[in-house]
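Continuing the batch. This is chain 6 of the set; chains 1 through 5 are on the previous pages. Same settings as before, nothing changed between runs. Recording input and output for traceability.
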Amino acid sequence: MEKKCRVLLVDDEEEFVRTLAERLELRGLMTRVALDGIEAMDLLDQSDVDVVVLDVRMPGMSGLDVLRQIKSIKPDLPVILLTGHGDTKDGIEGMRLGAFDYLMKPLDIDTLMEKIFEATQTS
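Output for chain 6:
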């Protein structure tokens, strides 16, 4: 039996991230949700995940700060960044820091599923 892909979703927009988690679970993925960077790092300490989907713009600890921390402790863990507001500069900076890829909000669920699949195949 194939193990389910474990995805950590990190976004401060609670309604968005909970809806996204439900949509991914309906497609057979296991999800965990963190509403900020500190919670994300705590969850990464406590559980194994296969891929992180991380919002760039969050109050307090930014997504790029979280990405730096993830890459310092788990350099092989793929991270897919979510950028909004036409903010490709942060996405490009995230790629330079080691993100697997970045996607723009509003998010297309099928595109995200493809990226998650690609990220877990290469890790």
